[in-house]
């Protein structure tokens, strides 16, 4: 599939409009082998393509943002990457924002190449936003931040993740500041220059289950001040509820974009059943913005 890139409004503005229309939910396309099997699809490129096309049919035009997990496509090699390209193209054709979950993080010309691959206007793998890792230093993300700003795209920076190993890095202190706190402040500095609107163009990944850490580290107001859309994985199948998010994020909960994958995808492969499952989690999530 090919399509012609069009000039884009700033990502934060587009995301705010999408949330206003569909509510604050990001749904994943995670073609995990167990889900392919649950859908009675072969664990092959053919099964991958059928899974991804069904997800685009179900979610396109119906949700604020869709997050394909790149690793589950890449595992099939070049043919899997071709399916990923077609998935991103399909989402563009429906007018649905895409967040490609790649968690790239490198330095210099390598990070520049990653940024061009996923955020450049001419790339077949371009998405509306990508996830990145700041743990080679926040400054290492500059190529991605610069290209995203130039093309109207977004970047979601890992800040406070819910995996048990994350705390050893993210809660660590350096010169009296936690690593997570430094990341949050750096994102806020970028978003202070963004177009007017509730959201800046640089978001953060903050796990839906880390509410106690947000409070313990004194980060609630700093998250709110950052204007960052807060991608919150862990809603649904991983156990977090909208009540957990509202309590844990406090005043910053209005910036949260709960992310769900398995809780919705488990309703497949029927498109109508997937849409029904999506509507149920959208109805729950609207409590964050009411």
UniProtKB/TrEMBL annotation:
<feature type="active site" description="Proton donor">
    <location>
        <position position="103"/>
    </location>
</feature>
<protein>
    <recommendedName>
        <fullName>Orotidine 5'-phosphate decarboxylase</fullName>
        <ecNumber>4.1.1.23</ecNumber>
    </recommendedName>
</protein>
<dbReference type="InterPro" id="IPR011995">
    <property type="entry name" value="OMPdecase_type-2"/>
</dbReference>
<keyword id="KW-0456">Lyase</keyword>
<keyword id="KW-0665">Pyrimidine biosynthesis</keyword>
<comment type="similarity">
    <text>Belongs to the OMP decarboxylase family. Type 2 subfamily.</text>
</comment>
<dbReference type="InterPro" id="IPR001754">
    <property type="entry name" value="OMPdeCOase_dom"/>
</dbReference>
<dbReference type="GO" id="GO:0044205">
    <property type="term" value="P:'de novo' UMP biosynthetic process"/>
</dbReference>
<keyword id="KW-0210">Decarboxylase</keyword>
<dbReference type="InterPro" id="IPR013785">
    <property type="entry name" value="Aldolase_TIM"/>
</dbReference>
<dbReference type="GO" id="GO:0004590">
    <property type="term" value="F:orotidine-5'-phosphate decarboxylase activity"/>
</dbReference>
<comment type="pathway">
    <text>Pyrimidine metabolism; UMP biosynthesis via de novo pathway; UMP from orotate: step 2/2.</text>
</comment>
<dbReference type="InterPro" id="IPR011060">
    <property type="entry name" value="RibuloseP-bd_barrel"/>
</dbReference>
<dbReference type="GO" id="GO:0006207">
    <property type="term" value="P:'de novo' pyrimidine nucleobase biosynthetic process"/>
</dbReference>
<dbReference type="Pfam" id="PF00215">
    <property type="entry name" value="OMPdecase"/>
</dbReference>
<feature type="domain" description="Orotidine 5'-phosphate decarboxylase">
    <location>
        <begin position="24"/>
        <end position="277"/>
    </location>
</feature>
């Amino acid at each position: 599939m090919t399509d012609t890139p069009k000039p884009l409004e700033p990502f934060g503005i587009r995301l705010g409009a999408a949330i206003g229309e569909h509510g604050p939910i990001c749904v994943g396309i995670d073609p995990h082998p167990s889900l392919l099997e649950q859908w009675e699809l072969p664990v092959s490129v053919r099964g991958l393509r059928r899974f991804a096309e069904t997800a685009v049919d179900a979610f396109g035009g119906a949700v604020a943002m869709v997050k394909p997990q790149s690793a589950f496509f890449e595992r099939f090699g070049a043919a899997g990457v071709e399916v990923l390209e077609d998935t991103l193209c399909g989402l563009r054709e429906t007018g649905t924002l895409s967040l490609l979950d790649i968690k790239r993080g490198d330095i210099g010309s390598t990070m520049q190449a990653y940024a061009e691959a996923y955020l450049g206007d001419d790339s077949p793998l371009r998405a509306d936003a990508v996830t990145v890792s700041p743990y080679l230093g926040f400054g290492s993300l500059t190529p991605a931040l610069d290209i995203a700003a130039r093309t109207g795209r977004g970047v979601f920076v890992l800040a406070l993740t819910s995996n048990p190993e994350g705390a050893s890095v993210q809660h660590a202190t350096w010169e009296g500041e936690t690593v997570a706190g430094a990341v949050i402040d750096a994102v806020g500095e970028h978003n202070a220059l963004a177009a007017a609107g509730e959201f800046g163009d640089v978001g953060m990944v903050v796990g839906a289950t880390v509410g106690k850490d947000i409070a313990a580290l004194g980060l609630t107001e700093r998250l709110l001040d950052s204007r960052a859309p807060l991608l919150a994985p862990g809603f649904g199948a991983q156990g977090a509820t909208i009540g957990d998010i509202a309590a844990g994020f406090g005043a910053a909960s209005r910036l949260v974009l709960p992310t769900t994958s398995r809780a919705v995808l488990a309703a497949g492969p029927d498109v109508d059943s997937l849409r029904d499952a999506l509507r149920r989690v959208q109805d729950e999530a609207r409590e964050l913005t009411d």
